[in-house]
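[recover] target loaded
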């Protein structure tokens, strides 16, 4: 990692601190996408700004200094004259806040953290159960139908679905679960509806005997070496995109929208948010954000279900 050097040819204490933080993130198993984002924000935005301000040590980052950093992002204009969106400003500031939180735990003299400017919560579309049914029904192959159904009934992330293997179907008596390998290597069991279990079993039995891959979802056509190779994230994304086009759904449909729609459906039907957090592999903060688009009618129905059950 390239470091900014002091006049004496040595990296500044702040440079070393950022480097140590990124190494700590890597050692904790942070996903590559997050590592790239943190490195971009800290090394290409934050440290260069500190250099122009003559800041070389974390103790110099007081409230006023960090407010200047935040305002520099809010006032920034691109080459075309456009200002940064609040979402972009958040994406640059959040790694700095996380780095300073880590530094404080490490005993560094942290005196303040940058403020996050207020932003409006984006209004995210949700697919109804009827629309998910349409996505499934229009696909010509059972593999693609099952992919839509796993997204719609189990709420997996895109990378989680592509990593599923045939051995990740776990049975216990009459119940079955998908053993999902989530973020940071965390493993969780997601309940598998009986009908979907039967369809997955048929899909596995129908694969060619000479197939050597144990991945659950494979390419339909043989690849260059005559093998049905594991379906990639790009391949699954195309399946969902094609389904939306065939079903003539005008919303922008993508794998994570299916996960979000599943979480919304679970909440609307009274699932405890803590249980949903456990099954979905998402933090309570993420679950709380799902409530932002639920209406007062949803709250009314949920309360009535509880009161009716008590009688």
């Amino acid at each position: 990692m390239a470091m900014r050097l002091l006049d004496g040819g040595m990296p500044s204490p702040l440079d070393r601190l950022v480097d140590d933080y990124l190494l700590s993130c890597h050692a904790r198993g942070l996903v590559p996408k997050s590592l790239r984002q943190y490195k971009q924000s800290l090394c290409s935005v934050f440290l260069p700004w500190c250099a122009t301000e003559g800041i070389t040590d974390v103790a110099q980052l007081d409230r006023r200094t960090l407010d200047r950093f935040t305002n520099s992002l809010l006032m920034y204009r691109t080459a075309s004259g456009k200002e940064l969106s609040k979402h972009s400003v958040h994406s640059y500031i959040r790694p700095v806040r996380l780095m300073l939180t880590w530094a404080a735990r490490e005993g560094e003299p942290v005196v303040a953290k940058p403020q996050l400017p207020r932003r409006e919560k984006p209004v995210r579309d949700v697919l109804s159960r009827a629309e998910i049914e349409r996505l499934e029904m229009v696909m010509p192959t059972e593999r693609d139908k099952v992919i839509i159904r796993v997204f719609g009934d189990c709420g997996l992330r895109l990378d989680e679905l592509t990593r599923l293997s045939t051995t990740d179907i776990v049975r216990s008596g009459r119940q079955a679960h998908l053993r999902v390998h989530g973020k940071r290597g965390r493993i969780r069991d997601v309940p598998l509806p009986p009908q979907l279990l039967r369809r997955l079993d048929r899909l596995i039995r129908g694969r060619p005997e000479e197939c050597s891959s144990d991945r659950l979802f494979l390419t339909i056509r043989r690849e260059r070496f005559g093998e049905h190779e594991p379906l990639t994230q790009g391949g699954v994304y195309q399946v969902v995109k094609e389904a939306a086009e065939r079903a003539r759904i005008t919303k922008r449909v993508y794998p994570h929208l299916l996960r979000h729609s599943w979480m919304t459906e679970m909440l609307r039907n009274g699932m405890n948010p803590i249980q949903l957090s456990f099954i979905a592999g998402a933090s309570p903060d993420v679950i709380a954000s799902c409530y932002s688009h639920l209406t007062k009618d949803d709250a009314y129905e949920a309360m009535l279900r509880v009161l009716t059950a008590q009688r």
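[recover] notes: DSSP finds 13 helices and three strands in the chain.
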